[in-house]
Amino acid sequence: MADKAEKKVSGGVKMLLELGPVAAFFIGYIKLKDEVFTIGGTEYDGFIVVTAAFIPLMLLTTGILWALTGKLSKMQILTVVLVTVFGGLSVWLNDERFFKMKPTIIYALFAAILGFGLWRGESYLKVLMGEVLPMEQAGWMIITKRLVGFFVLLAVLNEVVWRGFSTEAWVNFKTFGLTAALFLFFMTQSRVFSKYGIEPPKEDA
């Protein structure tokens, strides 16, 4: 039953499906950033065209991931919905600002949800990650508090970059800066994980 409920997929394939669309967006933007396309009598710059291609690619890779694993996290589902909505608005209205606002809304929403849980004395992060990362409640509360502040910081940074810098600077920030920041955050929490982590019980031979 367990194998049926949770299908296994190699880490390389999973990473390709999750990060592939982002890498494709970056490469597509670099190649088409100075191009202008006339479609149906309306001019679209390279950013809008790449955004239009990114949406179905994101839907396709997420669908493949779901077919291979049998499940999607709430974060993955929310990300796809926001990409579709705000990316679609950017393409429909020919206005790149909507797509650039997407990270701000995602991080602000995550911070609000986790903050609401903290207000109730709970860690919603534990609900999402508790099975794969067993840890004492005190540890989850510490990580969740820090993550709320971190998400707020990322939301503010995204607003500063897309409003104050060029589109190319924002694409680099979105592709490399935000990804590196998330990895760095969790790497710096290693002391909390080691202090409050719970080792799974060992089965008798």
From TrEMBL:
Q: Which InterPro entries does the entry link to? A: YciB
Top-level taxon of origin: Bacteria
Does ATP-binding appear among the keywords? no
Which keywords annotate this record? Cell inner membrane, Cell membrane, Membrane, Transmembrane, Transmembrane helix
Topological type in the membrane: Multi-pass membrane protein
Localization per record = Cell inner membrane
* Pfam families from the UniProt entry: IspA
Where is this chain primarily localised? membrane
What this protein is reported to do is described as: Plays a role in cell envelope biogenesis, maintenance of cell envelope integrity and membrane homeostasis.
Similarity field = Belongs to the YciB family.
Protein's recorded name: Inner membrane-spanning protein YciB
